[in-house]
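Marked as duplicate of an earlier ticket. Keeping the data here for the record.
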Amino acid sequence: MPDTPSVARRSERARAAILAAAAELIRELPYAKLSVEAIAARAGVGKQTIYRWWPSKGAVVFDAMLELDSGPDGLALPDTGDIAADLRALLRGSIAALTDPTFESFLRAMYIEIQQDPEIGAAYRERLLLPERAAIADRLAAGIRSGQLRPDLDLELASDLLLGPIQSRWSLGLGGLTESYADAALTAALAHLRP
């Protein structure tokens, strides 16, 4: 007699289908037109299944984004021993993510949601933004210990100087986010960060 599928396996399949459906739809539709109903229909589940695990479409999209962005190494910046090279890779990687059509649609949706939904804003900060900033601070602290960065460096301000110009251009839709822009932003930041 065949084994009866467990509830846990069915639930995980439904969860995976919902996140995959949200990921597909966020690339196909403007965020304002995306609905829980559309996600449920694409995933082959009822709306109540989605609302059992998530309070809103924004929460579903956020989890789908985290699923897409999760990697096996967690949030750690490389430490090659050359702080400028490592920060260049960080800034170029940030620009690549912000301009990747697959990932940008998620980020635009989250940019809207964190302004409107305090719970999603808190989750975004706790699960994504603060861990990313902690990883940057860890790499900057290693740069201080190796003597490549100023010993009195304010790590929060340094993170803002590194990421702020790129995030500002992206959020305002100013364009020009290229590797050469990343390199120019890094050169400007390093003028403050280095001893």
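See parent ticket for discussion. The longest helix spans residues 118-145.
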